[in-house]
Amino acid sequence: MRSACSVRRLFLLLAACIGVAACATPPEPPSDLLAPSAEQAALREMQTRSFDVSDKNQAMRGVIAALQDLGFIIERANEPLGLVTAARFAEPRDQDVVGVTVTVRPQGEDKMVIRANAIYNNEPITDPKVYQNFFATLERSLFVGRN
Amino acid sequence: MKRRRSGILRTTTRSSELRVPGSARLRARAAWALVALALATACARTPAEEFFQLAPESAAHRAAQTRTFETANETELLSASAAVLQDLGFQVVESVREVGFLRAAKERSAREYGQEIWRWVIFALSTAGLVGGSNTLLLLPVDLQQQINASLVARPLDSAGTRHEVRVLFYRIVWKSDGQSGDQTIAPGEQKMGMIRDPAIYQLFFSKLSKAVFLEAHKI
To answer: Of A93, B65, B86, B218, which has the highest C-beta tally within 10 A?
Structure first.
């Protein structure tokens, strides 16, 4: 009998605590929520490459051709912004999707900076080999078409 | 106050009591956890780096999906491609002239007689208890609806722009119907994606495009 009473009291105390906590204001997000971290800087390094191409349109077409060769479906392209978005189904498991957003921006007079953000099922890919492979294919596509 | 002592006589030695009796259960649990972990890593997905490497079949796919045209007029080629897609029942969803890009989609029923027949056969066999145990009803989900998409890119083949190539990719998303497995219902709407690799569809597209621009479509 005594132990049942104390259990109920404990339960009421717990419920009261939860109630108070629910009415409390949510914690403020940390002020450096959007600040770049060391991992993001390393990821940016991996994802960016500079190419000796002076024409943005030619660079974009090279990117699109490389993505098509890799079996990607081109979803969106925006020439003034230098933006290409593509995705592919990760065969054999067709529920997995590999997506990539590529931006092409001029750097100086005769170079283009190309950055590729790859994601696997909505999570960013952080393996440097992935980006090395992509840029190797892109390089072939850019300079084979130049004749 | 006198403490009540236990009536059991101590017969085991001190050292054997050091091993806690529940640890055997704990060790078994740990062993199962390790097995589960091993299985989980064994079912790991394909590493992403393979998707960014040219596969051996990419050259064959490229050949099936691409045709070249002896024309300098890329805009006309793109416009004719849009017209051919329209003719095939597609709605053009996206178009970017500067990079020669078109994307189109169409929806259609995906029901196939073969699948429906097979579904009823399995259902009949399962009610008779011949498939899947004596008390389980099996209703296989069939394909219901599909969305066929086309992603097309036209680009110049040389710096003078006298020859252009058109590369098109058809792929589809299929939604499946509901089903049943024993007393567990399978909800409808499961999606299945797949590239369309049938060469006849690509040949049809390029023959129509060739007629639309009055030019011959050369294979690469």
So the answer is: B65
| CA atoms of B162 and B154, how far apart (whole Å) | 13
CB-based contacts of A5: which residues, under 8 Å, 6+ apart? none
Give the domain extent around A112. 40-146
Would residue A1 count as lying in a domain?
no
Give the span between the Cα atoms of B126 and B183, in whole angstroms: 12
Residue A94, domain member (yes or no): yes
Helices (H), chain A: 2-23, 38-47, 56-69, 128-144
Pair B149, B103: CB distance under 8 Å: yes
Q: Which residue has the tokens 């990607």?
A: A72
Give dist(CA B53, CA B51) in Å, integer: 6
Dump strand ranges (E) for B5-100.
Answer: 66-69, 91-96
Q: What is the pLDDT of residue A118?
A: 93
- Does the distance separating the beta carbons of A79 and B98 come in below 8 Å? yes
The tally of domains found in chain A comes to 1
Q: Which of B48, B155, B171 sits opposite A73 (nearest CB)?
A: B171
Does residue A11 fall inside a structural domain?
no
B152-167 pLDDT tens trace? 999 999 888 899 999 9
Cis peptide before B21 (omega within 30 of 0): no
Q: Which chain A residues are closer than 8 Å to B62 by Cβ?
A: 68-69
Note whether B211 contacts A: Cβ–Cβ < 8 A. Answer: no
Cα of A7 to nearest chain B Cα, Å: 28
Q: In this structure, is residue A19 part of a structural domain?
A: no
pTM of the model: 0.73
Question: For residue B57, what are the β-bridge partners?
Answer: none
CATH number at residue A49: 3.30.310.80
